[in-house]
Amino acid sequence: MNYAVSACLMGVNCKYNGGNNANVKIIAFLKDRPHLTVCPEIAGGLPVPRACCEIVNGRILNTDKEDVTDAFIRGAEKEVQRLLDEKVDLVILQPRSPSCGKGRIYDGTFQGKLKDGDGVFVQLCKKQGIEVWNCDEFLEKRIGFLK
Fold first, then answer.
1. pLDDT tens digit string along 71-126?
2. Predicted TM-score (pTM) of this structure
3. Which of 14, 21, 122, 129 has the highest Cβ tally under 10 A?
4. In a 10 Å sphere around its CB, with 0-12 CB exposed, 13-18 middle and 19+ buried, how is residue 31 labelled?
5. Where on the phi/psi map is residue 132: left (φ > 0), alpha (ψ -120 to 50), or beta?
6. Where in the chain are the domains?
7. DSSP secondary structure code for residue 67 in this structure
């Protein structure tokens, strides 16, 4: 099986605040397995660090009220094409993100509240039939690291 994983989960400093979400369990699981790291936001040309972004009424805005939807879509399209080119079977992503969030994302108020929904990258992956998991559900349901 070929995997792809959010770069931030692998310790790459690509988050909006310049940090990462390194997950030692995901890193250990993928250590000897073929995988790609992905960051649709970087692929779309957004800098590190950058203003925090959330989906607001179908558009992606940052805390400075700039509309960065085009960059998010451009990056998601590039990364999805890469997954297809590399024949990736399953993608493990960072929860809650406006790009990589699956099932629950920030609600657009910039107050840390969540709502049901998927990030832009997840939506495009699903349209292409690529299996997508957030890292928490993957650890719990696919490999039983959480209980």
1. 999 999 999 999 999 999 999 999 999 999 999 999 999 999 999 999 999 999 99
2. 0.94
3. 122
4. exposed
5. beta
6. 3-142
7. B
